[in-house]
C-alpha cells in the first residue's frame, strides 16, 4: 500500500526550506521535492547582505545549503526531483514524480518565479557579477557607479528610482518609444536629475573586463545600428514567470499564473497551501519568502489538526 504523507512540499528556496523546517519540527515528517535546480533564484546570487543574522553577508548557494541542512536536521526529507503533475481533485492529493505517484494529506507549493532574462550575448557569464534582476537585493553594491535598467513597465521605473539612492547615474534602456508604466511612475523617473532615458534601444551584448561588467552594446531595433554604453551594473526588469504550469489550473491563479490565496496561505483548494515568489508579486525577497513559508507550515499544521 502506498504511504500517505502528512505534508509534501513542492519546491525549495527560502519559502520551501522554512516550511520544511517548521513542519518537521511539528513532527509532520514532511517530504520535499526540491526540483532538479533546487535552491531557487538565490542560487544565482553571489552576495546576500540584507538577510538578518548574516552581518558579513553570505553567498546565495551557501545560504540555501544552510537552510536545507537545518531543515533536514529536524527530519525534512528532500529529493532533488521535479514534480511532473498533480491531482488535487480528491484526497489524499496525488503528486507524480518521475512516473511515481506520491500521496499527501496536505501540500505546500513553493516553486517560486523565474525572472525573465534578455539572453543577450555574454549574459550568462555576468549573472550575479554585474547583471541582476533585483535592485533591492543588489543596488547597494553599486554606490557611486553608473548603472542601467532595462524595461518599460512599473517595475523598471521602481527599480530605476530606487537605484538613485546609490548610483551616480541611472540609464533606463527601453526598446520602444512608449512605456507600459503608469504616467505617475514614468513622470517620477523622467524628471529625476540622476536618470536618463534611452529609447529605441535593446541590449545586444554585455561587455566586461577583469573587474566585471563594463558596459553593453545597444542596438536600435529599427535599423540595427549600434552604440556602446558604459556601466558597471545592469538591472533587467522585464518581468517574472511563476513556476505554476505543472498545476494545470487546479488552483486559482491570476492572469499571469501567480497563485492566489483564498484564506491566509491556503489556495482555492482546501489543504493546498502556497508561499514565496509563486504568490508574491510585490516584495520578492528571501526574508519575505521565508516568513510566508513559516505561515504556510503553521496553516497546514492547523488545517491537518482540524481535518
Can you walk through the features of this model?
This protein is α/β, with parallel strands linked by helices and 307 residues long. The model has no long low-confidence stretch (mean pLDDT 95). Strand 9, helix 5 and strand 10 form a beta-alpha-beta unit. The strands form 4 sheets. Strands 1, 2, 3, 4, 5, 6 and 17 form a 7-stranded mixed β-sheet that branches. Strands 8-15-9-10-11 form a 5-stranded parallel β-sheet, covered by helices on one side. Helix 1 runs parallel beside helix 2 (60-73), helix 1 (13-25) packs parallel to helix 7 (286-306) and helix 5 (154-163) packs parallel to helix 6 (183-190). It is elongated and about 60 Å long. It contains 7 helices and 17 strands. It starts with a strand and ends with a helix.
Q: How would you summarize this macromolecular structure in one to three sentences?
A:
This protein is an alpha/beta fold. The chain has 7 helices and 17 strands.
Strand content: 25-35%
| Tally of helical runs | 7
Apparent shape: elongated
Number of strands: 17
Cα-based radius of gyration, to the nearest Å:
21 Å
Tell me the helix content. 10-25%
How much is the average pLDDT? 95
The biggest sheet amounts to: 7 strands, mixed
SSE string, helices as H and strands as E: EHEHEEEEEHEHEHEHEEEEEEEH
Q: What is the SS-derived class?
A: alpha/beta
Runs in which pLDDT lies below 50 for 5 or more consecutive residues are none
Tell me the span between the first and last alpha carbons: 22 Å
